[in-house]
Amino acid sequence: MRSEEVILPAGAAPEDDVRDRLRKAVRDIPDFPKDGILFRDITTLLLDPEAHSLAVKALADPFRDDLPDQIMGIESRGFIFGSTLALELGVGFVLARKPGKLPGPVLSVSYDLEYGSDSLEVHKDAIQPGSKVLVVDDLIATGGTAKGACELVELLGGYVAGAVFLIELTGLNGRELLGDRPFYSILRY
Which residue of the set 77, 97, 175, 181 is catalytic? Predict the structure, then answer.
């Protein structure tokens, strides 16, 4: 599995300082949504414009020299980072949505989750064959949703330029489901 560290541009704050700043902006909520789970809440980071901006820049930096054609954001928090990342890089944005949310003809994929299964859909005309697409979400846990999004890109003839996440829960091994696709995460817990 290819894994990359985020490289910050010259003149930027040292990488560890950025990670420390972002880590402080993420709130930990114990026993949510059920006992024994420590929830990593990004809503506090989003309330902080400086932290939000640092997060978007850190997500964008590995791709500045080799821009993707599009960003695919995974519903729903992936929309927040995906759309701002698309603006930061000056590329188009594709929605990967839960079933029944997109109005046009769609392609759908089902995937396994820790406690069941789910599906994602994308408009059939959203990705052109040969397009380089960067898949974005706020967090990767078991990896099923991210794998499903990557499969949608590839089923439409696109190439996964990478999968990037603000937060990676390393103990759940989600990156393993992505195989050889380039993988990037900023904060690892």
Answer: 77
Kind and range of the H or E run holding 163? strand 159-168
Phi (first) and psi of residue 146, to 5 degrees: -65, -40
C-alpha 156/C-alpha 164 separation (Å) is: 20
Query: Could you tell me which CATH class the domain 3-188 is placed in?
Result: alpha beta
Q: Give pLDDT, residue 11.
A: 47
Residue 88 known to be catalytic: no
Q: What is the pLDDT of residues 133-150, one digit of tens each?
A: 999 999 999 999 999 999
Q: Given phi > 0 = left and psi -120 to 50 = alpha, else beta, which region is 124?
A: alpha
Sign of CA dihedral 115, 139, 129, 93: positive
In the set 15, 27, 114, 154, the catalytic residue is 114
Residues pairing with 164 in the sheet: 136, 184
Active-site residue 176, yes or no?
A: no
Strand pairing report for 116-123 and 106-113: antiparallel
What φ, ψ does residue 147 adopt, rounded to 5°? -60, -45
Predicted pLDDT of residue 15: 77
Q: What is the pTM of this model?
A: 0.91
HSE-CB for 38 with a 13 A CA cutoff: 6
